[in-house]
Amino acid sequence: MFERFTDMSRRVIMRAQEEAKSLGHSFVGSEHLLLAIAQSPGLASSVLAEAGAGADRVRAEVTSRALHLDDDAALAAIGIDLGAIRASTTSVFGEDAWRGEPTWTELAKQVMQDAYEEADALGATYNGVVFVGTEHLLLGVVRHEEGVAGQVLSALRVDVIALRKAVADRVNDVLELRSVADGEPIEQRNKAVMQRVGKLGPEDRSRIDEPIRELDRIRLDAWGEVVAGAGRAPKAELVDAYIAKLRPAVEATERALQHAGF
After folding, report:
1. Exposed, middle or buried: residue 202 (CB in 10 Å: 0-12, 13-18, 19+)?
2. DSSP class of residue 94?
3. Cβ 32 vs Cβ 19: under 8 Å
4. How much is the pLDDT for 245?
5. How high is the mean pLDDT of the chain?
6. Does position 219 have pLDDT exceeding 90, yes or no?
7. Average pLDDT of 135-144?
8. Spatial CB neighbours of 90, under 8 Å, sequence gap ≥ 6
9. Cβ-Cβ contacts under 8 Å for 53 (sequence gap 6 or more)
10. E strand or H helix at 215, and its extent?
11. Angle, CA 162 vertex, CA 53 and CA 119 arms, to 5°
12. Domain ranges of the chain
């Protein structure tokens, strides 16, 4: 599923892990995701800041809660006996087995699944493929008022309904940008390339797999930047930047197809 997350969203997920570690937590929860979203440039952090939940305020609230709730208490609140798990693990594998990367809570995992559903529901697709941006991660977070992130937003007096509307309004701006970009010649060439690729069998496709993957990566990342700038930068400027990044990747894939005789 993560291959359909934009580069920015993947960075948010990695940053959430780093935030958990910096707070001394052995788990990654919804609050760490919220903190990572609030600190990452893009549509989601902009909407959060406008709602009164900027990065500094979110960090202060999350940190305050972390100071008063250790790992055992935090996980006990969601039905997990961390002490029992720690004792069982170390008795079998030794003390070193307990050290390592923080694990994701079930709620945090659900948030990411919900983010994919939000992206699909809002029509965040490209060539029929759903992609998940930071705005969809935020919508996944606010679905769960019972989580720590939900409690943080409540403490900051964020109106979740208004927040969702603000995201939807920005998404509408993105859909308008999508319509403009679709009319560009290089976009038509890109779609023609993907149609040619779609007709290839597994063996033939493997011969040009690298440029196809690179085109897919660049396309998703470039569009992620358009999404981040929606409603804040001139539409023509955003589309021009997208086209400038897409063009060389499309041309490289066209050359690969021609060289392979497809």
Report:
1. exposed
2. -
3. yes
4. 93
5. 84
6. no
7. 94
8. 97, 98
9. 38, 152, 153, 156, 158
10. helix 209-229
11. 90
12. 2-173, 183-259
81 φ, ψ to 5°? Answer: -90, 90
Element (DSSP H or E) covering residue 129: strand 129-130
Token pair of 3 as six digits: 């291959």
Q: Quick check: helix, strand or coil at residue 2? A: helix
Residue with tokens 């969809």: 136
Name the class of domain 2-173.
mainly alpha
The residues, ordered by sequence, that sit 6+ positions from 174 with a Cβ below 8 Å of its Cβ are 43, 124, 226, 227, 230
SS3 content of the chain, % helix, strand, coil (to 5): 75, 5, 20
Q: What's the pTM value of the predicted model, to 2 decimals?
A: 0.67
Least confident of 59-68, 69-78, 115-124: 69-78
Instruction: Provide mean pLDDT across the span 170-175.
Output: 82
